[in-house]
Design a protein that fits this description.
Layout: H1 3-24, E1 28-34, E2 42-46, H2 60-67, E3 74-81, E4 87-96, E5 102-111, H3 113-126, H4 142-155, H5 165-177, H6 186-194, H7 198-208
Helix pairs in contact: 4-6, 5-7, 6-7
Organism: Providencia huashanensis
InterPro entries: DauR-like, DauR-like_HTH, YheO
Protein name: PAS domain-containing protein
Length: 209
Amino acid sequence: MSDLKENSLLAQIDIIAKGLSETFAPFCEVVVHDLKKPEHSILSIHNNLSGRQIGEPTTELGLARIESPDFPNIIANYTNQFTDGRPVKSTSIGIKDDSGQYVAALCLNLDMTLFRGMQSMLSQFIEVGNSPIKEHIEPNGTEAIRIRIDQYAASLATTARTLKAEERKNLIEILRNEGLLDVKKAMETVAQHLGISRASVYLYAKKAS
């Protein structure tokens, strides 16, 4: 690969890195490595969280890529940490040239400190006591419907209220097959949780039958 073409490739990767860092700021550091220069591989650091500097050497993962073109292009969501001990979730993407050799790497390092704190707070917030008193504010079974709807939406990386028409129809069919539409006030519960009318739920149920 010519120096001009290689420099152009690195420049384009750096633009992508900058965009990613601005999208996920302030939690994500994005680093561009020039694997042609392993001893001084760090070409740029956007949203610097690790304290590293431009011109510092590549990591063990970078060296492994240089040694073997068969090394995976993407290593996603692996456990890592900054030098001060902060937990990190990292993803490393290798970039090859026309000959199939690794020449660059784009690395994302997500600081998990705040997210773990939020997870801890949420766990405490949803924790309930072991009181001997039991009370049911709403009919039994409706919570199971809500949970199942949320599970289905999560499997599509979306939320209950942003499901598309075809996805709603599939959801209704799933609820029917699992017996959840037999629960008292099932249609009303589904409509409320999806943010649509009961008439729409009945229509989806009819199409799914």
